[in-house]
């Protein structure tokens, strides 16, 4: 038996029907997520593939159908990292045992959505098995593994493009 959800028109996120937030109750929005990446085998690495790293982006099934890493709203009493882990499990079907969060990378984005301030915090996580299956929730209609340049083309927002580039630079500095 699943929880019935509805799309919050204020912030374009799904909430359990009995807890849907409205514009009167939201002072600012906070969401958290993970930038999930996988490494390709060395034999697949070329300049065209930005080395051997691919990033997971999910396409929303609502609104403008934008592409984004798994992320979602912080629930009452939940911490930021707990939110990122829960949302990654819910939206992509990836349990925390299937990836490793890299120390030293945490990016906070601040912007306005429908007149309300929003903060999104991302961590960087490496998939342990590059062949792990992605299982989308109803919030998303597609997923893709993309090189940095491909991910930046699909991620329409400049702040998300910048965050992906920062993540890639961080990974490059560790090799």
TrEMBL record:
Query: Which cofactor names does the annotation list?
Result: a divalent metal cation
| Catalyzed chemical reaction(s) | a 5'-end FAD-phospho-ribonucleoside in mRNA + H2O = a 5'-end phospho-adenosine-phospho-ribonucleoside in mRNA + FMN + 2 H(+); a 5'-end CoA-ribonucleoside in mRNA + H2O = a 5'-end phospho-adenosine-phospho-ribonucleoside in mRNA + (R)-4'-phosphopantetheine + 2 H(+); P(1),P(4)-bis(5'-guanosyl) tetraphosphate + H2O = GMP + GTP + 2 H(+)
Q: What class of enzyme is it?
A: hydrolase
Annotated signal sequence is: none
A molecular function GO annotation: bis(5'-nucleosyl)-tetraphosphatase (asymmetrical) activity
SUPFAM superfamilies per record: Nudix
Domain Nudix hydrolase: where?
Answer: 27-168
Q: Which Pfam families match?
A: NUDIX
The alphabetical list of record keywords is:
Hydrolase, Nucleotide-binding
Q: Does the keyword Hydrolase apply?
A: yes
Note the superkingdom of the native organism.
Answer: Eukaryota
EC number of the protein:
3.6.1.17
Keyword Plastid set for record? no
A GO biological process this protein is involved in? AMP biosynthetic process
Q: State the similarity comment.
A: Belongs to the Nudix hydrolase family.
Which PANTHER family has this protein been placed in?
Answer: BIS(5'-NUCLEOSYL)-TETRAPHOSPHATASE [ASYMMETRICAL] (PTHR21340:SF0), DIADENOSINE 5,5-P1,P4-TETRAPHOSPHATE PYROPHOSPHOHYDROLASE MUTT (PTHR21340)
Q: What does this protein do?
A: Catalyzes the asymmetric hydrolysis of diadenosine 5',5'''-P1,P4-tetraphosphate (Ap4A) to yield AMP and ATP. Exhibits decapping activity towards FAD-capped RNAs and dpCoA-capped RNAs in vitro.
Q: What is this protein called?
A: Bis(5'-nucleosyl)-tetraphosphatase [asymmetrical]
